[in-house]
Design brief:
Mean pLDDT of chain A: 96
Helix content of chain A: over 70%
CATH superfamily of chain A: Winged helix-like DNA-binding domain superfamily/Winged helix DNA-binding domain
Low-confidence stretches of chain A: none
Shape of chain A: globular
Largest sheet of chain A: 2 strands, antiparallel
Oligomer: homodimer
Distance between the termini of chain A: 25 Å
Structural class of chain A: mainly alpha
Number of domains of chain A: 1
DNA sequence: ATTAATAGTTAAATGAATGAACTATTAATA
DNA sequence: TATTAATAGTTCATTCATTTAACTATTAAT
């Protein structure tokens, strides 16, 4: 990369990531039922996809302390969306799974989000989109790497 | 866009934006002083760039209600980073500006963030990066548009 | 057998967000 | 002009999200 161009590109990235984030999060919130937040939906999504996980897994995925996960899981557990099961081999470990209500709520909301994202991405040619996602993917690995080695 | 590919691309976008967001926000938080949060830095940044703005401007930019802005500005005002001035023509309006302390704190933190983002973006060839930012920019406009017409 | 480390929770404190009710001021209109 | 609308911002109560520090229980290491 040419040093002379760096500052402008960095500024542009900072501005765009802020703006896309805020606007995107706001639209995602609009798809939620009144009794759930976007973080709670992301939690349902992760557990749904991976079937079962531990609070420690979630803390790593969400980049927060485990006590933050305990608090969120408590709120979702009270609403009947999540189950806790102790590992019989290693009794320190807790497995989190979705209840039937959790699954069905997740699927309904995720469908609305898919619809929203589809309508966003429809504004792009397939090739441009694929190129974009390819670079986005690399960026994701770079960020994961920096986070891993810190 | 070919319908058959859509679902995969949508899934990929959802996963990447989540992951880049969480990892990115976590790294940005690491650049903050202990007495400030990333939202507070973003607020300093916006006011710094635009010199002066109203709470309503901030509410629009951050996509939150005005009462959320009042609360954040109060916290930053208590720390001596922000000034409030009433408009003499229209006495309903409040102008927010940075104090000298606010400016200097902003600049120190922003420098660390620039350094971080530079080291991230250094992993890309200039052309790939420019192409990426171009699409990211389009995406930003699409999101802003959807938000405007809702 | 004792000490370390790991998994998870609890509790107190702070920040961030909303909705509803409120003040003050300005704009619209009958 | 007098009354009514709308706008800008704040306050208050409530909920969610997060951190730090202290804690329990369990397993691993020496």
């Amino acid at each position: 990369m040419l040093p002379i161009e760096i500052k402008h590109l960095v500024d542009q990235y900072i501005e765009l990531s802020f703006s896309v984030n805020k606007n995107g999060e706001s639209l995602v919130r609009d798809q939620m039922n009144d009794d759930m937040t976007s973080d709670q939906h992301y939690t349902l999504r992760y557990i749904y996809q991976i079937k079962s996980c531990t609070p420690s897994d979630l803390a790593k995925k969400f980049q927060v302390k485990k006590s933050a996960i305990t608090a969120m899981i408590n709120r979702m557990w009270k609403k009947g969306w999540i189950q806790r099961t102790r590992d019989e081999k290693d009794r320190r470990v807790v497995y989190l799974t979705l209840t039937e209500e959790g699954k069905s709520l997740y699927m309904k909301t995720e469908e609305r989000i898919h619809h929203l994202v589809s309508s966003m991405l429809n504004n792009f040619e397939q090739e441009e989109l694929e190129q974009f996602l390819c670079t986005y993917q690399k960026l994701q690995r770079v960020l994961e790497d920096i986070n891993k080695h810190k």
